[in-house]
Amino acid sequence: MPEGPEIRRAADRIEKQLLGGPIEDAWFAFDELKPHTASLIGESIFKVDTRGKAMLVRFTDQRVLYSHNQLYGVWKCHCATTEPVTRRSLRVRLVVQGRAASLYSASDISMWDADSLYQHPFLARLGPDVLSQPVNIDTLAERLVLPGFHRRGVGGLLLDQGFVAGLGNYLRSEILFFAGLHPKLRPYDVSDAQNQRLARHIVEVTWQAYHQAGVTNTAAWIKKAKDQGEARRQWRFAVFAREGLPCHRCATLIERMTVGSRRLYFCPCCQQPT
């Protein structure tokens, strides 16, 4: 499933594709969305933003198209006269000045008034979004010690969208490695300085993944990994998907464990359980 940085980058592409003029054509696959088709013609899109892994297409009449890609959804930008080559099922298409953005295979799509968007059952449960809201390190450090979070293992906590929105499997492995924390540790177990370090890496790793298209590793370690013949799916990360390969920092072999029913990678030397 795409994580927050990937959805935010997709939103940037769609915003660039669809801003700059009135909507010329709109198409929806689902019956509950079809009544909006005609009334969108002539309206404009003024912003495409994200909350966690959800995308919000905002129209000038204060309607908001909500979508969540889940496992299989994908947006494609293309010329309106050229159909993308795909076997996926078309769900939404919006056209502005001959430029189209099409959403395929997603099933969680709905239209909302901007004033009532906060009532959306998914959005209402989300924690702060590092990429789309003014979230700082101190704010996250304070959340780590809240009663609802401070006695939970950080390996599971970082997947809780109610704690921080947009984090997913590869981000949590990378964040915990750079923070030097074992996945089973709890905010309650560690020092204020360690919680502050974890908060800092939540912000820094997430923003790096956004700016560098999913790359969370350091430049020096990337060069080293490439020289050793690692594939992109491995060298782009410090630990994620590198089970059995040496840690870039200490050369201990990276291990894999399951936390929250999903795979997590860590260095047993750099991330001690105590």
TrEMBL record:
<dbReference type="GO" id="GO:0003684">
    <property type="term" value="F:damaged DNA binding"/>
</dbReference>
<dbReference type="GO" id="GO:0140078">
    <property type="term" value="F:class I DNA-(apurinic or apyrimidinic site) endonuclease activity"/>
</dbReference>
<dbReference type="InterPro" id="IPR000214">
    <property type="entry name" value="Znf_DNA_glyclase/AP_lyase"/>
</dbReference>
<keyword id="KW-0227">DNA damage</keyword>
<feature type="domain" description="Formamidopyrimidine-DNA glycosylase catalytic">
    <location>
        <begin position="2"/>
        <end position="118"/>
    </location>
</feature>
<dbReference type="InterPro" id="IPR010979">
    <property type="entry name" value="Ribosomal_uS13-like_H2TH"/>
</dbReference>
<dbReference type="InterPro" id="IPR035937">
    <property type="entry name" value="FPG_N"/>
</dbReference>
<dbReference type="InterPro" id="IPR015886">
    <property type="entry name" value="H2TH_FPG"/>
</dbReference>
<dbReference type="Pfam" id="PF01149">
    <property type="entry name" value="Fapy_DNA_glyco"/>
</dbReference>
<dbReference type="Pfam" id="PF06831">
    <property type="entry name" value="H2TH"/>
</dbReference>
<keyword id="KW-0862">Zinc</keyword>
<dbReference type="InterPro" id="IPR012319">
    <property type="entry name" value="FPG_cat"/>
</dbReference>
<keyword id="KW-0479">Metal-binding</keyword>
<dbReference type="InterPro" id="IPR010663">
    <property type="entry name" value="Znf_FPG/IleRS"/>
</dbReference>
<keyword id="KW-0378">Hydrolase</keyword>
<keyword id="KW-0326">Glycosidase</keyword>
<dbReference type="Pfam" id="PF06827">
    <property type="entry name" value="zf-FPG_IleRS"/>
</dbReference>
<keyword id="KW-0511">Multifunctional enzyme</keyword>
<dbReference type="GO" id="GO:0006284">
    <property type="term" value="P:base-excision repair"/>
</dbReference>
<keyword id="KW-0234">DNA repair</keyword>
<keyword id="KW-0255">Endonuclease</keyword>
<keyword id="KW-0540">Nuclease</keyword>
<protein>
    <recommendedName>
        <fullName>DNA-(apurinic or apyrimidinic site) lyase</fullName>
        <ecNumber>4.2.99.18</ecNumber>
    </recommendedName>
</protein>
<keyword id="KW-0456">Lyase</keyword>
<comment type="similarity">
    <text>Belongs to the FPG family.</text>
</comment>
<keyword id="KW-0238">DNA-binding</keyword>
<feature type="domain" description="FPG-type">
    <location>
        <begin position="238"/>
        <end position="272"/>
    </location>
</feature>
<keyword id="KW-0863">Zinc-finger</keyword>
<dbReference type="GO" id="GO:0000703">
    <property type="term" value="F:oxidized pyrimidine nucleobase lesion DNA N-glycosylase activity"/>
</dbReference>
<dbReference type="GO" id="GO:0008270">
    <property type="term" value="F:zinc ion binding"/>
</dbReference>
